Amino acid sequence: MQKKLSDYRRVIGDKEIYEIYKAAKPLLGKHVVHINSTYQGGGVAEMLNTLIPLMNSIGIKTGWRILHGTPEFFNVTKSFHNALQGADINLTNNIKKIYEETVEAFSVFTHLDHDFVIVHDPQPLPLISFYKKSQPWIWRCHIDITNPNKTLWEYLKGFILAYDTVIISSEKYKKDDLPNPQVIFYPSIDPLSEKNRDMTPEEVDMVIKKYGIKTDKPIITQISRFDPWKDPVGVIEVFKKVKQSVDARLVLLGNMASDDPEGWKIYREVEKAAKDLIKTGDVLLLTVDSSTLVNALQRKADVVIQKSTREGFGLTVTEAMWKKKAVVASRVGGITLQIEDGVNGFLHDPYDYDGFANTIVKLLEDKALAEEIGQRAHETVKEKFLITRLLKDYLNLLSSLM
Ligand code: UDP
Questions:
Q1: Does ligand 1 have an atom closer than 6 angstroms to the CB of 314?
Q2: Which amino acid residue places its CA nearest to atom 17 of ligand 1?
Q3: For the chain, which residues make up each domain, given as ranges?
Q4: CA distances for 166 relative to 53, 119, 143, 179, 348, angstroms
Q5: Atom in ligand 1 nearest the alpha carbon of residue 225
Q6: Contact (Cβ atoms closer than 8 angstroms) between residue 189 and residue 387
Q7: pLDDT at position 39, please?
Q8: Probe ligand 1: pick from 48, 294, 299, 319, max atoms within 8 Å of CB?
Q9: Whose CA is closest to atom 22 on ligand 1?
Q10: Is the CB of 224 inside a 6 Å radius of any atom of ligand 1?
Q11: What separation in Å is there between the alpha carbon of 283 and the centre of ligand 1?
Q12: How many angstroms separate the alpha carbon of residue 110 from the centre of ligand 1?
């Protein structure tokens, strides 16, 4: 059944629901389109899946277009993604050509006569150059752009300047050299989605069993695409240290996103780093794409880890916090907007393997502490990171651009 705003009454209360209807008023009947480059895998698709039905349910006609690209195009855009997060790039004319020509081809069969166009991330960014602009365009950047590669940034800025507004996830990503208005939207999760809905312990156990995860030892998990920035190999290193003190099992779950060509390469690196532990069954690598499994695994885990070296926001952190889990994560990017160290989770520098391992061991040995932290984590998400808040942010922004 399609989601409706009223479904969220029991989560956020009537006053908030009314506030959202009120914020939608100036936009009733307007036509909005979101454009990104994948319908599944990664945080952007996750949010659009709920946000779009909700916008429609309150009377704003909202569509979703997905940029079609070749593997060659997605290799280029993944290298852009990496370079925006600080990696090197050799920005040749051929690379620019592949990027711009793919987007131009998409523009030919994508007619945009909407009142607002919202473009997500760098993949479809140049679209704006292929239309006669007749409405506000918004660029929503989900990436950690604290320290982007300068050459690439200068090139992409050429497209960004045509946008009316840029949305970023953190004050830290604001760019002094960008004259466009920059607004901050925290990403958010849908508490009623398959991934986050309540589950009984029996259902959790059933799902965990179905995927062959044994529960005879405490479970530590990181749920993330197999991506260098999520540092799954580092997670294996941390786990090896944990095992010196406590016997536990590590489950790495990572689906393969269609706009991310690096997945299997990184998967094989992890497989190599964890070879012996995989043999004994103490490390389990899963690549299934299942929201029910994400939900059950986050609920079943004794500790959730997120050892990213860069992280635009980190929805997996929010999801685990919602499930009252103590998350041990890197002090990077958007994770620091969510976790206050020692209050509602724990933060370490991304390469502090000992710090990660010690905190994980402490949480495995002190259940009361894990529970107390988890309870506070849940309250943080309820207050700041639910999809209904994101919906309100969009309504207010669109109204301000009318
Ligand atoms: N995810 C998933 N299955 C997986 C791995 C990740 O459904 O096997 C989801 C995860 O639950 C979250 C999103 O993909 O909703 C990842 O968002 P995040 O912001 O953590 O990272 P991104 O992939 O966007 O860099």
A1: yes
A2: 43
A3: 5-188+386-400, 201-384
A4: 23, 10, 12, 10, 30
A5: 5
A6: yes
A7: 87
A8: 294
A9: 42
A10: yes
A11: 20
A12: 27
| Architecture of the CATH domain 5-188+386-400 | 3-Layer(aba) Sandwich (3.40)
Chain segment 3-52, per-residue pLDDT in tens: 899 999 999 999 999 999 999 999 999 999 999 999 887 889 989 999 99
Q: What is the pLDDT of residues 224-274, one digit of tens each?
A: 999 999 999 999 999 999 999 999 999 999 988 777 888 999 999 999 999
Residue 258's pLDDT is what? 75
At 347 the pLDDT is: 98
Please give the structure tokens belonging to residue 64.
């979703």
Fold of 201-384: Rossmann fold (3.40.50)
pLDDT the model gives residue 337: 95
pLDDT confidence of 198, banded at 50, 70, 90? very high
Question: Nearest C-alpha to atom 3 of ligand 1 is from which residue?
Answer: 255
Q: Please state the atom number of ligand 1 nearest to the C-alpha of residue 142.
A: 24
pLDDT score of 256: 86
- Name the token pair of 287: 């690549």
Is the CB of 223 inside a 6 Å radius of any atom of ligand 1? yes
Distance (Å) from CA 30 to ligand 1 centroid: 31
**Ligand 1 atom index nearest CA of 41:** 14
- With tokens 């990027």, the residue in question is 99
**Nearest CA among 115, 209, 85, 99 for reference residue 158:** 99
CA distances (Å), origin 292, targets 14, 64, 298, 343, 381: 29, 24, 10, 28, 20
Query: If you average pLDDT over residues 180-191, what whole number do you get?
Result: 96
Helices 232-243 and 263-273, interaxial angle, to 10°? 20
